[in-house]
């Protein structure tokens, strides 16, 4: 019996060994799906729309399109001042007039009125005459610098339109002036 048990044991061991075989290899994974065909070329991008930007306007055209009242408020032209009872141009005022002439030549469409003013002392008649001499002195000087006379007009306000109302030398000195008012625009230009 021992032998038969041994044989049986060996037979079983051989059966187990015989049954124990290599595991089946798993089948290879399926091949990846084919890549999709390349899409056709994308449609062209839409043309960029131009932003709503106003056309570039140079300074000359910008000023040409601005109203005379607005130009006057800009203070493009400087005032000049006079000594008491005088209508002669001082050196510093000639420099201001030279800058005014350059501005008027650059903006050749501007029309101006040269306003002669006086301080509160003296009679109305005296100050009107003095204011006229003052505005005429500036008119003639600007014309000598090349500003067309037909673009300028001269007027005297005497003491009737003061900047300052006080009875002090400083106030009177401010009122003794020529003011260059932009009063219109000429047709044409450039």
Helix and strand succession? HHHEHEHEHE
**Beta-strand proportion:** 5-15%
Q: Assembly type of the shown chains?
A: single chain
Give the strand tally: 4
Trace the largest sheet across and list its strands.
Answer: 1-4-2-3
- Average residue pLDDT: 85
Gyration radius (Cα, Å) is 50 Å
Terminal CA distance reads 136 Å
Question: Portion of residues in helices?
Answer: 25-40%
Q: How many helical elements?
A: 6
Structural class: alpha+beta
Shape: rod-shaped
Low-confidence stretches: none
Described by strand count, sense and barrel closure, the largest sheet is: 4 strands, mixed
What would you say this structure looks like, in words?
Strand 2 (110-117), helix 5 (124-144) and strand 3 (152-158) form a beta-alpha-beta unit. Helix content is 39%, strand content 14%. With 190 residues, it is an alpha+beta fold. The protein has 6 helices and 4 strands; from the N terminus they run αααβαβαβαβ. The mean pLDDT is 85. It has helices spanning 2-19, 59-64, 68-74, 91-106, 124-144, 169-175; strands spanning 80-81, 110-117, 152-158, 177-185. It is rod-shaped and about 160 Å long. It has a 4-stranded mixed sheet. The N and C termini lie far apart (136 Å). Helix 4 crosses helix 5 (124-144).
Based on the model shown, name its key terms:
4 strands; 190 residues; alpha+beta; rod-shaped; 6 helices; four-stranded mixed sheet
